[in-house]
């Protein structure tokens, strides 16, 4: 059994190139970026067939945050006191204990080991930990998914 205090070491598999260099809350929809996969790690056929998918799920690390930025309690989403205080695990904030993010984005094209994407909410230089094709079979039935009302309020301009 793994001890929860055992460190986990992850090697980035690529890096994001994006026009966004600072964290911003909104307007990610039209942002185009690329993910350059590590040529020392991957053979070019590692992406064979990926171009047949319309979207990707990208796991990355919020690399600009330090340990003192970590939030482990409740706070108002985006600092808005008109919204309820909710815990870090009830939000998708960047100040998470391991600084990990999962984002879905549109795959625009594959050029060798470079993936061209739109709507990836990652900054320039972001280390990518994994890339997976988005499969709608892994999404719960939409009529059974529920969210609190404040989510619509804070995400209305995100994409």
UniProtKB/TrEMBL annotation:
InterPro entries: TrmO-like_N (IPR023370), YaeB-like (IPR040372), YaeB-like_sf (IPR036413), YaeB_N_sf (IPR036414). Keywords: Methyltransferase, S-adenosyl-L-methionine, Transferase. GO terms for biological process: methylation. It holds the Pfam family TrmO_N. Residues 10-143 form the TsaA-like domain. One of its GO terms (molecular function) is methyltransferase activity. Belongs to the tRNA methyltransferase O family. This is tRNA-Thr(GGU) m(6)t(6)A37 methyltransferase TsaA. It comes from Streptacidiphilus jiangxiensis.
């Amino acid at each position: 059994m793994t001890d929860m205090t055992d460190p986990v070491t992850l090697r980035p598999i690529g890096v994001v190139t994006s026009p966004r260099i600072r964290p911003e809350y909104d307007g990610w929809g039209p942002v185009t970026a690329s993910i350059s996969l590590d040529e020392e790690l991957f053979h070019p056929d590692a992406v064979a067939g990926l171009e047949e998918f319309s979207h990707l799920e990208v796991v990355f690390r919020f690399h600009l945050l330090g340990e003192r930025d970590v939030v482990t309690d409740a706070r108002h989403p985006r600092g808005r006191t008109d919204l309820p205080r909710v815990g870090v695990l009830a939000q998708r904030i960047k100040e998470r204990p391991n600084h990990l993010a999962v984002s879905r984005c549109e795959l625009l094209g594959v050029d060798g080991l470079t993936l061209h994407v739109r709507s990836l909410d990652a900054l320039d230089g972001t280390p990518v930990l994994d890339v997976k094709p988005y499969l709608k079979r892994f999404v719960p039935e939409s009529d059974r998914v529920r969210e609190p009302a404040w989510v619509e309020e804070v995400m209305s301009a995100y994409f």
